[in-house]
Amino acid sequence: MTGTYSDLRREALDCLLIDDPWHKAEATRALHARRSQACITVDSTLQVPQWPGRPDRPELVAPRDLPRRRNNRETGHATLIHAICHIEFNAINLGLDAVARFSGMPEDFYLDWMQVAHEEANHFLLLDAHLETMGFRYGDFPAHDGLWEMARKTHHDPLIRMALVPRVLEARGLDVTPAMMDKLRASGDNQAVSILELILREEIGHVHTGTRWFNYLCEQRGLDPVPTFKTLLETYFNGEIRGPFHLDARRQAGFSDAEMAILEAARARCASAFSGLHLFLFLHFRFLAPRFLGIGNQRPVDLNPVLVAQCSVKLAHLAEDAHLVAGQVDLRIAFQNARTTYSRLNRAVGGDFELDQGLFVRQRVGDLDCNDISVFHRFPVRACRRRRPASRISG
Predict the structure, then answer these.
(1) Which SS3 state, helix, strand or coil, does residue 55 take?
(2) Dmax of the chain from CA atoms?
(3) pTM for the whole thing?
């Protein structure tokens, strides 16, 4: 479709469904170039799928399964550049998805997010070209899907999308980019630093776009933006947000003093909970578990193996949940130790433990059949039953 007969939202959907990253980026830039010739059917509801078009690579894994981004002789800091490139590819999809998915908004909403998608496409192509100078391309390293997972949770409501994706997840990029630039500058990669300087300037505008439309939707619904933002943080992020914050960038992006106070309080809660949890996990896996299980030269402690099993299940939950919430890579070691603990417990007490990749553990010890469901840093809620007769055990 060409000329005035084209529809910006339908063409944005076409771009969204393209699998090839480079074709998607170029098609997005071309659509942006002819946006003034397109009409915008604001009231039409398009059938937008849950998932965008995307390639077979990179392999998408859980955040805890990503290799640590360390310089080495083979890859240098290419893994860091690739991780940023992956974020920018997802951001193209987020911009296009906002244009295609949400009907009934003012025309400026669609033009704003088309501009965002265009700039994200430029960022992706710049980073991928830089990766090529290092001997790699986008898709050569594994990545996670956290950004799109949050997008899926907000498909039903543009207000929640504006609050949480640009103003929480993408705003986190404003906080961490200066430190990444320092790291790349120290390694001598001035070209990467220049690209990130451009990205930081334009990402401030992208977060500001989220702020603009979040405030607009709050006004349309008669909501106060500050308590609404706080409620959404508590609902979707357990009221815990990682810091520190790039205050100047966030203020340029439209965050009010009241909102920054909410974020600082959420950051403090996250840091406090994680600090205590990290110490608890360290003590358990460094000192207690070896005594329980007779690892190394430690003599096993004569304790009820069911209680030891329950303790390890709970701590493994906490390790996994804290990693999912706080993104702390050093907890991966604790979680792997938990898996080792499971294996040893299975052999020691004849139990059968099953741990999936989410927040659900099913354990069978003797004649007990227990389900554990844990939510973030809270202890699991335990529902236990004996195959014969019915009974409960304390956690």
Answers:
(1) coil
(2) 80
(3) 0.71
